[in-house]
Specification:
The structure holds two protein chains of two kinds.
Chain A lengths: L1 H27 L4 H13 L5 H12 L7 H13 L5 E2 L4 E2 H36 L4 H14 L3 H15 L19 H38 L2 H8 L4 H14 L3 H9 L6 H6 L5 H10 L3 H29 L13
Antiparallel strand pairs in A: 1-2
Helix pairs in contact in A: 1-14, 2-3, 5-6, 5-8, 5-14, 6-8, 7-8, 8-10, 9-10, 11-14, 13-14
Chain B lengths: L17 H7 L3 E13 L4 E13 L3 E5 L6 H8 L8 E8 L8 E2 L5 H7 L4 E4 L13 H11 L4 H14 L4 H6 L7 H12 L6 E5 L7 H18 L2 E6 L2 H5 L4 E6 L2 E7 H6 L4 H8 L39 H5 L4 E5 L2 E4 L6 H4 L10
Parallel strand pairs in B: 3-8, 3-9, 6-7, 7-8
Antiparallel strand pairs in B: 1-2, 1-4, 4-5, 9-10, 10-12, 11-12
The chains are: A mainly alpha, B alpha/beta.
């Protein structure tokens, strides 16, 4: 319990540091966002805008009150962020939360499905490779896995969009669903969502499963050679129980932390893919914000992505001991 | 994947005449005849157990002593047809469930029949108890899954498990809740012994069960073993490389050298009246408190490689008494005394040629 508390405090601290860093980046970088916003305000409003008025506008956009002393600015900024106020997007002229919020489920849909596909296919394939260790199937799969694992997702994405999207016109090349449809739990809408999401999901899954397969293969080969497996067979356990409770459990366990970190990337994992497929998710808005120098939106995106990662790793750390008794905290159990 | 599918050559020994076999092996519970284990290598066979015939008698502790790689574990594995692929087990292993009943030919059993012999009749304790438990399952889980897999009543079985654990001086509640990594070496080894006895077997094959333990723990497990054997009416095959360790425990000893049995007989006979050059050399190499280190003599040379075992007596290349016959022909059994046999061409010369003032080494 003490470990869990310590770990949670650590995570909160990490988030705190990340948000502070985003304040520092915006406030302190020379030629940074504040100067840019100021120049923009002067350009828009001409010379008749007073300095106070410009500062007021900047404060509204960024939560940073430029006139106040640095520590007051910092406190106000932090306060706003932790109240959930991420400022207003310059480009969209709307609160950042209103732009990012609705994008979250779409991005999670893409990255989550891709991760699920890659993980299940990878683990099953890896286990199969381990059982057939050294066979032609194993060698071929290892090769394919290595190649795919070293291919960047955007290369596959570009190929998909070029051939399956533009050339063959089998899949749409942009958007989350056909614009004529109204969102809801209707079959045409859900089909359209899947149709639009298929290529982005596949391009991420295709480059992802190889890595899972290779680590699963390695772990399973190791477990298959363990003494406890031989002992389990001699004790007459069923093949099914040995496969699930002995091989799968002990082989997947070391991959659990990796999986949680991967889950932590659900918000930030599709930045380039979303742009290739013009899919309005978090990554899509993030690139838009970067191109448009929309600092509040950018910062909102960054904070969201980092916080998701911190949460993923925290969950991994807190639950690992529950899955693997060997990793339980020192005070959790008595060893004798 | 499974051991059951291990290929077999046609049996060398015809055991249609069960009575004949019965006569050969009075009071035996497991009788191994011409047991061999080979591994097909690229260009030649590697023989890791070479034509071994031995009986485990009902109610005895038979110590099998040999150096690393002499085929000790293979003998135990062959006894429950558990040689891992691609090893090939030949010969015959007969198990007598009742002292006057018909034997079960272990190597000829189907997969299902083998399942009901292994662990239920013939069980095994492995070296390295820690690695014999699933690291992510508590000890209770191991007992329960074994009972379930053999269709035993789990509740009654767990009662027995608790009894076994406390007979082995363990606290059942603590042990059952624990994971293997939470137990000390001695505790996990004892828990493994309890697990091997959970299905009430009659034969226990112990493959270097104390090799990973310190001397005190070795001794205490050995003395526990004696009690357990009496209480649960077990016949035990105890494999070790540590001759003095097992000499005090075992009723009989079998000395294995280079995949075949060199000498077999009652423990006192083997220790005090050995008629095989290897056994005597082995006894001379054992350090004791009484003998000065200078009188200890290592055995010159090295044990043969399984793919290049010498013709004739396997020990001949290292034996000071070796003659031409030793190098070309397999030595016959020579009965030194009733129940004490040595595989040597000239056993009568041995005590003179290799002297040692032992006899009390083993206790």
């Amino acid at each position: 319990m003490r470990y869990a508390l310590k770990r949670l405090v650590q995570s909160v601290l990490t988030v705190f540091v990340v948000v502070s860093a985003s304040f520092g980046l915006v406030r302190l970088l020379p030629g940074g966002p504040l100067d840019y916003l100021r120049a923009q305000a002067i350009q828009q409003g001409g010379s008749d805008l007073s300095v106070t008025e410009i500062n007021r506008r900047i404060a509204a956009q960024t939560n940073i009150a430029v006139e106040e002393p640095l520590y007051v600015q910092y406190l106000e900024y932090m306060g706003a962020i932790f109240r959930g106020d991420f400022g207003r997007s310059i480009w969209y002229e709307a609160p950042v939360t209103e732009i990012i919020g609705p994008a979250i489920p779409w991005t999670v849909f893409l990255t989550g499905s891709a991760l699920f596909l890659a993980f299940t296919v990878g683990v099953s394939l890896g286990a199969f490779m381990a059982y057939r260790e050294g066979s032609r199937f194993d060698v071929a799969s290892t090769g394919i896995g290595l190649v795919l694992n070293s291919t960047p997702g955007y290369v596959v994405g570009l190929l998909f969009v070029a051939f399956l999207g533009y050339r063959l016109e089998l899949f749409p090349t942009g958007g989350r669903y056909a614009s004529a449809l109204t969102p809801g739990f209707s079959l045409p809408f859900l089909t359209s969502v899947l149709h639009h999401g298929a290529l982005p999901i596949l391009s991420m899954a295709v480059v992802g499963f190889g890595g899972w397969a290779l680590s699963m293969r390695g772990n399973a080969v190791r477990v298959l050679g363990e003494d406890y497996l031989r002992s389990a067979r001699l004790r007459g356990l069923s093949t099914r129980r040995i496969a699930m409770r002995y091989v799968a459990r002990n082989a997947i366990l070391p991959m659990y932390t990796g999986l949680m970190i991967a889950i932590g990337t659900v918000f930030g994992g599709a930045v380039i893919i979303e742009n290739i497929f013009a899919y309005p998710g978090i990554g899509f808005y993030l690139i838009q914000a970067i191109n448009a120098r929309d600092y509040p939106l950018m910062m909102g995106g960054f904070i969201l992505i980092t916080v998701a990662m911190v949460i993923g790793i925290t969950i991994a750390d807190l639950t690992y001991g529950w899955l693997d008794p060997r990793a339980k905290g020192g005070d959790a159990r008595e060893s004798y | 994947m499974t051991n059951q599918t291990t290929q077999r050559r046609p049996q060398q020994l015809e055991d249609s005449d069960v009575q004949q076999a019965r006569n050969d092996t009075p009071n035996a519970i497991v009788a191994v005849r011409n047991g061999s284990v080979t591994y097909d290598l690229e260009n030649r066979d590697a023989m890791v157990l070479d034509d071994v015939s031995i009986d485990l008698k009902r109610g005895e502790i038979l110590g099998v002593v040999g150096e690393s790689g002499s085929g000790k574990s293979m003998l135990a594995n062959a006894m429950m047809d558990a040689v891992e692929e691609p090893g090939i087990t030949t010969g015959s292993v007969r198990y007598y469930p009742e002292s006057d009943g018909n034997p079960v030919n272990v190597l000829e059993l189907s997969r299902g029949e083998l399942q009901s012999v292994r662990w239920e009749e013939i069980s095994m304790v492995f070296q390295g108890a820690l690695s014999s438990f699933n690291p992510t399952m508590d000890i209770r889980g191991h007992f329960e899954e074994t009972l379930t897999a053999h269709d035993y009543d789990v509740e009654a079985g767990m009662k027995r498990a608790r009894q076994l654990l406390s007979d082995l001086h363990l606290d059942p509640d603590r042990i059952l809740e624990s994971y293997a990594h939470e137990l000390s070496g001695g505790m996990s080894q004892r828990a493994l012994i309890a697990l091997s006895l959970i299905l009430e077997p009659t034969v226990l094959l112990m493959d270097e069960p104390t090799a990973a333990l310190d001397l005190l723990m070795q001794r205490s497990i050995l003395s526990l073993l004696d009690d357990i054997k009496e209480k649960y009416e077990l016949s035990i095959l105890f494999i070790t490389h540590d001759l003095p360790l097992v000499a005090g425990l075992a009723d009989r000893l079998a000395i294995l050298y280079a995949f075949e049995i060199a000498e077999v007989g009652p423990s006192e006979e083997i220790i005090g009246n050995s008629h095989h050059p290897y056994t005597r050399a082995l006894l001379k190499a054992v350090p004791t408190l009484e003998t000065p280190p200078a009188s200890m003599e290592p055995i010159e040379g090295t044990a043969p490689n399984p793919a290049h075992t010498p013709a004739g007596c396997h020990y001949a290349p290292r034996c000071p008494l070796a003659t031409d016959a030793c190098r070309t022909e397999t030595p016959p059994w020579d009965d030194v005394n009733p129940g004490h046999r040595t595989a040597c061409f000239h056993p009568e010369k041995v005590p003179e040629a290799i002297r040692f003032d032992g006899g009390e080494n083993g206790s």
